[in-house]
């Protein structure tokens, strides 16, 4: 079977990061209007800091995706950092998320973060 | 040993620091995520997580400051001891392996060469192209490979140690793996490339070795070409030196052998004509013709002797010959001084002629074109008196210098050629207001091979 090339791996990572960044941007802005108190008291949403973090990380992730798509080192580093932070912030959600859908969403976030990291550090064997 | 300039070093240190930070963040993230995942896998099937993963009493007063930190404190200390141990064991067992993988990946990412060996070889080649003197080749190769591949130590060894002494860059970390790669051209090995791994316990990856192998091939070809250039220069120097030695010998033979013989012959002809009895007009006329022909031949031989080599060099030696020449050409209102050591070693004929002609040409230019009032000629032997390896010739004046972009004439080319054909160097510095400085370094090594007549 033909092994995935690094260029392709980076393009896939960039694609995943772009989709996840745009999704995070869209989904994190509306809840922020509710305010920290309301979000933390509803009980069926992730904590307020998760939305704030997503809002900060999403643009960086999109910029990183652009760089990684163009095979730029800085883009890959940005993707690695945002993936690491978002994975760490989503991991407790697997255990403590208030509802199964949110728990699943946290697990998916962790999985996507790990996939992005693996793809960003993918190596070509035939060099 | 060559050293990297400070700003470059600083930049490399900053890159190494950021690389370390990135590896630490990714490893910590992995450890936290894998611990959490194992706890989740063990705990989730057993019902309500809040009942199983509850913060212990001692932790409760410390919670409530940072949500994310609180969550991880509860995940680490909340589960029962068994669950914590399983998760910790799994995290510990796998983290080291993942750390290595992350470190290699991040290193490859920072060491951009990993993506394109061809681009790397091209980069090294472009650096090599700028290293004009063949002797500067090895240090340039070593520095380029070390900086491009971010290697701590690179050394290159060749078989021709006279022309290319071993060149090393950096210091190998103690205990680091050192890879030895042969430098080949066709079937012959012409040297060896030694490179140290980036750190202890991290041997070269297959891709590193592939890139280094490709590089060694290119370096081998380049080194071979450089060796050819050096050999060619050596041959050229030998030819020029042999030619000048031969001219000196022929001049000496003509001057000391044929010249006096012919002069003696002409004198005897005149004696013969004087001793003729009265009435032998025919014989007298014949002897007069022979005497004239002998005189003409003597003039031809003298002209030949002068053309072969400046006669003053053999009569007075280089320093005195130059002093004599400078005295002869010094015009009114111009001061020409010669600074030279009292005792000079015996020089190869080629070096003497080159130095004499360079001084002649430079002084002639200064007098005729620069209208200088002061001209200084210096001769020096670096490393004298132990073992002078070259003669340094310097001519400076205070006249009108060359304008910027002024094309070099035949005289300048000739001086440069005389220095370079002996394997020496030539330089000229000039400004319109600052006069002109002409300097040449003429190697005198190897004289003993070509000077059998002294």
Explained architecture:
The complex is a heterodimer of chains A (about 130) and B (about 450). With about 130 residues, chain A is mostly helical. Chain A is built from five helices and no strands. Chain A has helices at about 5-35, 35-40, 50-70, 75-95, 100-120. The longest helix of chain A has 29 residues, at about 5-35. The two termini of chain A are about 15 Å apart. Chain B has about 450 residues and is α+β, with helices and mostly antiparallel strands. Helix content of chain B is about 55%, strand content about 15%. A five-stranded mixed beta sheet of chain B has the order 5-6-7-9-8. In chain B, strands 2-1-4-3 form a four-stranded antiparallel beta sheet. Classes of the chains: A mainly alpha (about 130), B alpha+beta (about 450). At the A-B interface, helix 4 and helix 5 of A face helix 1, helix 3, helix 4 and helix 7 of B.
Helices and strands in order, then pairings?
The complex is a heterodimer of chains A (127) and B (454).
Chain A: H1 6-34, H2 36-42, H3 48-69, H4 73-96, H5 100-120
Helix pairs in contact in A: 1-3, 1-5, 3-4, 4-5
Chain B: H1 6-43, H2 49-52, H3 67-77, H4 81-110, H5 117-130, H6 137-149, E1 153-158, E2 167-170, E3 178-185, E4 188-196, H7 206-274, H8 281-308, H9 311-316, H10 318-329, E5 335-339, H11 349-368, E6 374-380, E7 390-397, H12 410-420, E8 425-431, E9 435-443
Parallel strand pairs in B: 5-6
Antiparallel strand pairs in B: 1-2, 1-4, 3-4, 6-7, 7-9, 8-9
Distance between the termini of chain B: 41 Å
Can you count the beta strands of chain A? Answer: 0
Count, helices of chain B: 12
Mean pLDDT of chain B: 81
Unreliable spans of chain A are: none
Determine the structural class of chain B based on helices, strands and strand pairing: alpha+beta
- The ordered string of helix (H) and strand (E) elements of chain B is HHHHHHEEEEHHHHEHEEHEE
Computed Rg of chain B = 39 Å
Instruction: Characterize the largest beta sheet of chain A: strand count, sense, and whether it forms a barrel.
Output: none
Q: How helix-rich are the residues of chain A, as a percent range? A: over 70%
Assembly state of the chains shown: heterodimer
Mean pLDDT of chain A: 85
